[in-house]
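ok new one. same drill as before - structure tokens go in, u give me an amino acid for every spot. 334 of them this time. try not to just spam alanines like last time pls lmao
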């Protein structure tokens, strides 16, 4: 039955059923897989007791044209809801949304457990999606994985989102957050976006105080201009993490000889790609370094660093900090 007569009948039955129905009951979580027929959708709603009269629900949906436009997803719907309200929710795609927060400075292998806990995405599925070179290069040219491409932020994503879907949502947010003013600045520096993210990730790994990010950036830019090795500790930590699956709390002298293309103590220039997920502040610092002459810095122990111009000054700064704290710090931040 279709047309005006069918519509009037369906509406009349809906009003009658609503008049006989009590208050909605407990909320049910209903999953509608992609490609589900409307019959399957109706059966699922009935099985969860969201609707009580499947035949009339199908009729009303056909009249409204909903049977051809239901969106897949996870929905929270109350038992005994009106057919009209259920159809409106399905038509709008009012899916259950879940929150996931990704802090700055994490690697893909460190984001994976967060996705598992917040969204129940298997760790191996997330890593497989995040290490897709074809997908990554579609977002940032030259990228071999999504390392550094996933913007650190709090996201609301549909329940049941796939690993691939989550990775693409986060990478797309990174593109959306790109400031148009950064592109000409990037060109003037002669850098690619991948190079920028690599440098920003090093700054992210070093900085503990926001005001020092442009100064740390300047140290690395000054080294690049002089042809000096970057000697950035975060690149060594990343190399070890990639090889062993665990991050070291403190680097030892022997660690600086760890062989990897990411080790900037052994290899000149920037690493092949980012070593973590940098935030906006580190990206801006990489683009706009401070105008300072420093070539060295060492951690002072309170989150700040001591910056120096010469290697002699740097060694004296290390000695002062060691005297103040005792001989427990690594010979890092070179």
């Amino acid at each position: 039955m279709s047309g005006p007569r069918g519509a009037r009948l369906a509406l009349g039955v809906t009003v009658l059923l609503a008049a006989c129905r009590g208050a909605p009951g407990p909320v049910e979580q209903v999953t509608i897989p992609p490609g589900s027929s409307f019959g399957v959708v109706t059966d699922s709603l009935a099985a969860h007791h969201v609707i009580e009269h499947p035949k009339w629900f199908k009729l009303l949906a056909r009249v409204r044209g909903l049977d051809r436009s239901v969106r897949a997803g996870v929905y929270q719907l109350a038992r005994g809801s009106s057919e009209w309200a259920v159809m409106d929710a399905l038509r709008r795609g009012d899916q259950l949304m879940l929150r996931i927060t990704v802090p700055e400075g994490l690697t893909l292998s460190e984001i994976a457990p967060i996705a598992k806990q917040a969204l129940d995405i298997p760790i191996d599925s997330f890593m497989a999606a995040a290490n897709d070179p074809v997908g990554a290069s579609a977002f940032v040219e030259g990228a071999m994985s999504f390392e550094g491409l996933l913007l650190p932020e709090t996201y609301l994503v549909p329940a049941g989102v796939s690993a691939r879907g989550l990775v693409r949502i986060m990478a797309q947010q990174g593109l959306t957050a790109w400031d148009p003013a950064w592109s000409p600045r990037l060109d003037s520096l002669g850098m690619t976006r991948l190079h920028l993210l690599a440098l920003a990730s090093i700054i992210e790994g070093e900085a503990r105080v926001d005001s020092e990010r442009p100064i740390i950036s300047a140290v690395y830019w000054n080294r690049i201009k002089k042809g000096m090795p970057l000697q950035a500790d975060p690149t060594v930590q990343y190399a070890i993490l990639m090889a062993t699956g665990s991050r070291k709390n403190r680097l030892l002298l022997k660690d600086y000889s760890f062989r990897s293309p990411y080790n900037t103590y052994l290899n000149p220039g920037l690493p092949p790609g980012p070593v973590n997920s940098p935030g906006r502040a580190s990206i801006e610092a990489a683009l706009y370094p401070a105008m300072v002459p420093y070539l060295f810095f060492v951690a002072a122990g309170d989150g700040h660093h001591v910056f120096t111009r010469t290697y002699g000054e740097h060694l004296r700064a290390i000695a002062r900090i060691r005297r103040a704290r005792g001989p427990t710090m690594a010979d890092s931040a070179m």
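The chain has 14 helices and six strands. and btw The radius of gyration is 28 Å.
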